[in-house]
Amino acid sequence: MPDQTTTLLILGASGDLTRRLLLPGLGTLLREEPERSVRVMGADRVELSQEDWQAKVRDSLAEAEVPQEVADGIVQVSTYHRTDLLDRDQLKALLGETGDPLAVYFALPPAVTVKVCGLLEELRVPHGTRLALEKPFGDSLESARELNQQLLRVVPEDSIFRIDHFLGLSTILNLIGLRFANRLLQPIWSAEHIEKVEISYGETLALEGRAGYYDHAGALMDMIQSHLLQILAFFAMEAPASMRPPEIRGLKAQALRAVQPWGHDPAGASRRARYTAGQVGDRTVPDYVTEEGVDPDRGTETLAQLTVQLDNARWAGVPFVLRSGKALGAASKRVVVTFKEPAHTPTGLSPAPGPDRLVLELKPGSVALELSMNAEGDPFDLEQKELTAELGKSRMLPYGEILGAILDGNPLLTIRGDEAEELWRIVEPVYDAWEAGDVPLEEYAAGSDGPDGW
Ligand code: NDP
């Protein structure tokens, strides 16, 4: 951990991301690592007094139970700068106020981020500056490439932190320990023993007033193109020699380069659906198309499924089913690994009641192994039993882990430029098939299990 003071400049300091995720994450970081020296600068076009900004920072630190003297020190040096970030002179003046080393967090709408990057290219930032960006990284392969090139004209690749907060989830990071520190699992982690892998993120939440963002994104971009393909990369990558960021990021990119829609058929490999009115628990959810801010003609999906294959020796023939949906009757956030049937079962032993499965629950974190074992009574009668381990509670919120890594200049938990481009390369043919009308937009009632057979 560096002992100099790092300036964390948050652009978009009055926005939703800063309020709901960044400041609370910072609180948990400083609670766990109170010796960190950080100066938090907020900038936004919204009018906000210095006192109001400091109160926001103080409240987040108090909420996270940061020791009082640590919180006082952080709040005292924390400043707010009302700035139109698209105004070159105002941005220049803001940069003049920052310290060194500097980490700039773009908590801005994506289109504004791109424009501010363009201005930074002209204005230049201090040597060693890190840039942290939120998804989406572009809205197509071409725009992702352009954004990458633009960013590289501002800072080098290892100073660009493309954020996917799923990578700060301890349950995702646990995949590394699980896979590479267990002799038992290492030899069976391949097509020879694994029948299929399902990575699901089904939630009970509906639109919750986020039409402005979600109606343009949809389930495929919001979850599959980003978070779920990142989980797949951790799941499927080859064994790293070390935990050094270039090693891990290189292996993830290599895994993603092998990904293709199942059967190289983006239409057959995908499904999309949209919820209609229904009851989720005790909440009445209106039809998606009647929600405020939704444009029905856009045909945005609230549920998507994409089955992919990895064209490499380790995973040839194994379907990876990625699925995500909103307004479902029950949440289901997990990775399920289904193993192949044994090559032979002795005559006289009852058949296994089901395949062996390893289930990784993402929230809250747990690992369960489902195996066939003797039932009570007849010793050769088998039943499925589950061995479960709860994962330890996270030290801090995912955004705490991520901010800590940015302040340390460690890009391990972030997405490299070529990875970001691969994510678009994988889903673009799916969008093309949807646009061509090759995949019907199905419907499901809010509160149901999703469309038939999902
Ligand atoms: P917001 O729409 O809340 O915008 C962030 C802030 O930027 C607002 O205060 C906005 O002001 C300000 N802003 C916009 N234009 C300018 C400008 N020219 N100069 C100065 N300030 C400006 O966005 P979010 O906080 O929701 O999201 C930020 C990023 O984080 C996005 O990329 C999003 O995809 C990503 N993200 C967001 C999550 C969330 O839960 N919110 C979750 C994960 C990622 P004003 O209100 O006046 O427009």
TrEMBL record:
Its EC number is 1.1.1.49. This is Glucose-6-phosphate 1-dehydrogenase. Pathway: Carbohydrate degradation; pentose phosphate pathway; D-ribulose 5-phosphate from D-glucose 6-phosphate (oxidative stage): step 1/3. The keyword Lipid metabolism does not apply. NCBIfam families: PRK12853.1-3. Residues 10-174 form the Glucose-6-phosphate dehydrogenase NAD-binding domain. It comes from Serinicoccus hydrothermalis. The keyword Transcription regulation does not apply. PANTHER family: GLUCOSE-6-PHOSPHATE 1-DEHYDROGENASE (PTHR23429:SF0), GLUCOSE-6-PHOSPHATE 1-DEHYDROGENASE G6PD (PTHR23429). The lineage of its organism: Bacteria, Bacillati, Actinomycetota, Actinomycetes, Micrococcales. Keywords: Carbohydrate metabolism, Glucose metabolism, NADP, Oxidoreductase. One of its GO terms (molecular function) is NADP binding. One of its GO terms (cellular component) is cytosol.
